[in-house]
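User: ok so my PI wants both of these folded by tonight, can you help

Assistant: No problem, let's get them done. Here's the first:
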Amino acid sequence: MKLKSLTVAMFGFYFTSFSYANQTVHTVDVDAATTQMEAASDAPSVLIEPPTGTVLDIIPETIDSAPTILPEQSNHKIVPPTEQTKEDSWWDRTQDKFSNSLQKRAHSINDWFGEPDPNEPAWATLRLIVDTRWDEYDDFSVKPRVRGKIKLPTLENKLSVVFGDDSLDNEIRDSVAINNENPRGNPDETLDGEQVKDDNSSLALRWSQWKNPWDIDTDADLGVRSGDDVYARLKVSKDWDLNNNFSTHAEQIYRYGLDSKDYLRTNLEIRHARPQEAFLSNQLSLTYTDDNFEQNFHWDNRLYRQHQFFHDHWFNYGVYTGGDIDDNQPELDSYGPFIGWRQPFLREWLFIQTEVNYYNDDDLDRDHHVGALLRLETWFQ
């Protein structure tokens, strides 16, 4: 498939989603107003969510009819606040010291470009991640990952510096999966140091908050990745609130690197979420790469239900499907169930996330098999 036609097709898919979402909202606006007026006449304090007028309305009806034995949703905190624990141990003092040093460095860099505004101080965040994977075919693999951002308000409050593993920014917002689209590296090594170094060596200047009449969020990056791959990257995203507690989130990403060449990705999520209830979501991604030697076009889809039993926690379960796209025809190469859990561990800034799945892989002639993933993540901010 030629890149030009693919680009048009994927951007067409993206903005068709925009149009469909807006059309859905406008189509039911009259009915929504009528329904709410009728509801108001009988019970003024109750707001009834009108239907979307589409097949999506079957989803909440099905959810309502299904029994559940799981606990109710909760935002109760199970770990003490950072301010309370920052002097409790060597780990706490180190985390607090490093977080403060990070903010001081952000302020120092911000001062280079002009007079800082006390009401809009510079800030920085840093994610440190260690992903561990296991399955019976590939055995164990460990990948440390880093992603940081420094916000510089003196540069018209639009520019920031981003560094580390840029593939983390390609994942859809609130991604349910523990993913890593970077090459695995040497399969004979549990930890491939050279591959880890390449994956985490991205550095870029990001321009955000473009003004536009469509309320579309934009990020434009210019930087270097994998050591010497100079690249430019554009990401646009938009949200819509539909009726009947449905919402849509869409992202389009295009990156061109002098070495890596073309990278194009579409992320789309449709979610049904009622207040104080578990939500149902479908996350779809389409990814195309072309380095002038090989072209790859792949799709991934995850349909899942997610619960929150306490603050910063999730428990989810669902079905994954995915495969290659050849000659405009998607192939089902891999599918199976998964179950995941994430929670803060002992501190607000430390997280543990697990996933167990049962997938096959027709491309590699692998039958369904158990896979396990573990993510340890800490934040400095």
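One down. Here's the second:
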Amino acid sequence: MRPKADPGDRRRLNVKRYHYERHDQLRTHLSDFMAAYNFARRLKILGGLTPYDYIRKIWTSEPYRFILNPIHQMPGLNTLWTNRRSTSAAPSPADII
């Protein structure tokens, strides 16, 4: 017969302790943990799927909803006149169109 373990022993074995040199290390670890937890969490509103699984399901069933606009994929500032040279501070209507 095995001796009974003290319930306090089980609790101590399941707790991980971390030591941080700086407060920003704690913040980083906490934000990483919360991101991983929320990413892997199954949600009732999504039918018990994780957000990633739900997006993958919709992507396969309704691919037309995921057509990318090439303009959104271009790197750089989100302005129409950034690469145009203009002497005035504001762009003219001809530059915008």
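The longest helix spans residues 23-40. The mean pLDDT is 73. Good luck tonight!
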